[in-house]
Amino acid sequence: MRFSLKQLAVFHAIAETGGVSKAANQLAMTQSAASMSLSQLERSLGRPLFERHGKRMVLSHWGHWLRPKAKKLLDDARQIELGLYDQHLVSGEITLAASQTAAEHLVPTLISRIDSDFPEVRVDLEVKNTEKVINGILDYHYDLGIIEGRCDDSRIAQKVWREDHLVIVAGKHHPYAQYQQISPIQLSQAKWVLREPGAGTRRIFNTAIHHLAPELDVWREYEHVPVLRNLVIQGYYLSCLPYLDVAKDLAEGRLVALNVPEMDMTRTLSFIWRKDSADNPIRECIFNEAKSLISKHIHQ
Questions:
Q1: Boundaries of each HTH lysR-type domain copy (predicted)?
Q2: What range defines the domain where residue 37 resides?
Q3: Which of the two residues, 240 and 116, has the higher pLDDT score?
């Protein structure tokens, strides 16, 4: 074989960090050694894998072709190494990016179950909106994602975890809180505080309301659900939020769910990953634990 796993690791680290120096630091090697490994790999393959823009390295056409294949080889090698070393069939780490609702209400229980059943597995979690989760999966920053709604990118594989739905909410002192039913005209006359563009919640809401009230009076857009929830509780705004995020406030009377018969905002929470990624036993463990959590919830 004309190339080594070490050379592929250097290539992958440069693709991930955008520079030889950062890649060398990530791999705990000298910059000159990293440069030499990349040069040897490019010579052996007979193709330039990067375009050099000063200190910045941008993947060439051949680099884009090689990247998923190199990552698959490196992932398989890591599983072999960890499995033999620890004498565990499932061990290692996975980087998970989750949208806010899933991260707050579902992922902690999921990670707790994994920690209990698979103590050699480490789940590194980042919380991002749906758009950033998808982009991070495509850019190889994350191994697995949890998003709201669907992803139609052909490079992404998707597995539905569970259903959820969005609700339009008002504070208990808002005039609409007393109405049994709200019309689209009333929605267009209200003041709104909403999730930022790029959030799965916002995308689903925009799709559901566009043909009913295409022009809304949006006063504020925020990334954090607690900010929106408290604005609605304390002020005279409406918002559209996941039921999981407002269930306690609804039960305790701080918020009221408005009845808008024309709007159906059922959605799914789904796992996503790159189709060209390697088979990953940790990913399968997460799927099985997630499925068992839903089954347990249904039968409670």
A1: 3-60
A2: 5-85
A3: 240
Strands (E), the chain: 50-53, 56-59, 92-98, 121-127, 144-148, 156-171, 191-195, 217-222, 238-242, 255-257, 266-274
Bridge-based pairing of strands 156-171 and 266-274 is: antiparallel
CA triple 252-164-242, angle to 5 deg: 50
The pLDDT tens digits of the residues spanning 47-87 come to: 899 998 877 889 999 999 898 888 888 877 876 765 554 54
**pTM of the entire structure?**
0.68
Among 208, 217, 211, 207, smallest CA distance to 187 is for 217
When computed from its CA atoms, the radius of gyration of the chain, rounded to whole angstroms, is 23
Look up the CATH number of the domain holding residue 112: 3.40.190.10
User: How does DSSP classify residue 200?
Assistant: H
Kindly state whether residues 143 and 275 are assigned to the same domain: yes
What CATH number does the domain containing 77 carry?
A: 1.10.10.10
pLDDT value at 166 more than 50: yes
Tokens of 148: 């709201």
3-state secondary structure of 10: helix
Q: Which residues contact 160 (CB under 8 A, 6 or more apart)?
A: 268, 269, 270
Tens-digit pLDDT profile for residues 21-36: 889 888 888 989 999 9
